[in-house]
Amino acid sequence: MVQSFEFIFWEALKALALVVAALLAVKAARPLAKADRRWALLYAGILALTALGAQAVGKDVAAEVYAESVPKNLDRNNDALAYSNALRAVELRPGNLYYWQMLARSKFTTRQFESMLADEHSLQALRPRGLGEEDVLRFAYARYFLGQYDQVISIAGQIMRQNPGYPKSYVLAGMAETALHHYPDAERDFLQSLKILPNQQDAVEGLAQVYFLQGDAKRAVAVLDATAHYDFPPDQRRRFEELKALYEQ
Hints:
Layout: H1 2-35, H2 37-75, H3 79-92, H4 97-109, H5 113-118, H6 120-126, H7 133-145, H8 149-162, H9 167-179, H10 183-196, H11 201-213, H12 217-225, H13 234-247
């Protein structure tokens, strides 16, 4: 948010400087414009350039305000407003990568997965060196929810090779492998994720589910019991208890 304030401050300063410069130029050209029509054209041109410059600065500020409101909208579960604000920011300034990232986040939250994937090339064009892990992972999750499990496993594998210590990529691979009934592979990836980060909730639940789906309810419950050795928030603890009750039936 500090960056947003800095951006608005500097844009406002630019606008003020533009106005001051335009006023000085207009003041100098006005007497000449009265005496000669050729100078009148210059006078009109200065006014037009000033208006265009102010409009451009206004769009920059508006786009930044729209984009910076998206995380707050998402935190407050106002997903529709987050999407509307992100879309407006991109429409105003389509060459800004951050605005596209906010749009992708809002589309993911509102489950517009196909539309989100259609935007992927726009983000890649703005960052030719490659998207960050969070962006790549978000697009991979969109493919997961669309049932494109083989592609998900491939993308997760690429992330693993680039950053073997990134636990979320193993969780995603395990989820896709579970959906394909590739249980040994899913078990391996969930275990690797927990080896890196023992209190990874999705990995705990994924590993327990893999054992349960293979008919080993006791082992599934044992995975959930093992979480007692690690710190988890109260809501996650309640979730584990609910799963234990399910598996013990």
